[in-house]
Amino acid sequence: xxxxxxxxxxxxxxxxxxxxxxxxxxxxxxxxxxxxxxxxxxxxxxxxxxxxxxxxxxxxxxxxxxxxxxxxxxxxxxxxxxxxxxxxxxxxxxxxxxxxxxxxxxxxxxxxxxxxxxxxxxxxxxxxxxxxxxxxxxxxxxxxxxxxxxxxxxxxxxxxxxxxxxxxxxxxxxxxxxxxxxxxxxxxxxxxxxxxxxxxxxxxxxxxxxxxxxxxxxxxxxxxxxxxxxxxxxxxxxxxxxxxxxxxxxxxxxxxxxxxxxxxxxxxxxxxxxxxxxxxxxxxxxxxxxxxxxxxxxxxxxxxxxxxxxx
Length: 311
Prior knowledge:
Elements: E1 15-16, E2 31-38, E3 46-52, E4 57-63, E5 73-76, E6 87-96, E7 99-108, E8 111-120, E9 130-131, E10 148-157, E11 162-170, E12 177-183, E13 190-191, E14 210-219, E15 222-232, E16 235-243, E17 251-252, E18 270-279, E19 284-293, E20 296-305
Antiparallel strand pairs: 1-20, 2-3, 3-4, 4-5, 6-7, 7-8, 8-9, 10-11, 11-12, 12-13, 14-15, 15-16, 16-17, 18-19, 19-20
């Protein structure tokens, strides 16, 4: 068993919310791999897209403070006759020009692929997603992609008129590396010639085994990446890095790992999949993640007061 005392529960002035977890319970079952976006016209400050394991589907919930969330609603379900999406999970969403663009992970037969769907955003934030097709838009092809591409994170680059995707690849149970691709339409993707663009650093015990599940944000003339570092396949922590171009010269935070499991707590085995928002009005960062203890997996919150992350 890993020695959890080697790392503090948080690093770099991040603090776990005392009332964690903020979402999920035994009735809902495992809620994981979330992304939090501005609420837009839904009437709430935040909306959270997340993977709902018992339903094998994607769901959404809403909140004004990031702590108290509405009851979840399923927004996207598996389509079993495609042959590659018995389970639906691990999504990315870009809301642009009144359209919600959804990239999702489909899983079947021990493999993972990435599909694409869109929805008009209704006047009150309503969504009704339609698949682009019954085929995935991104598939594992390269040796480092092994049997799975998953965990997409997508940004729209207005200047270049491109969708940019950072995605995890490798094994299905937990991916191994992070790769990059671009697309003008969200459907036809061009994988970066230098993939993978981010791999584990074996000298760092907290990520010596593998990495995965990232979020990337424009920040200080470059890009912030929050990602999962795996000490071993069962023990995960949340880490950070910065790059001038989002592809190369990644500099890891000196305060890594940022969020670690705590012995005897709800997240005592692993801390997975960060989703991070900076609240300018409150001058603080909010970081949500899914924590695991045994077979239970729920969503918690970590807070960093002040905009300066010390990088």
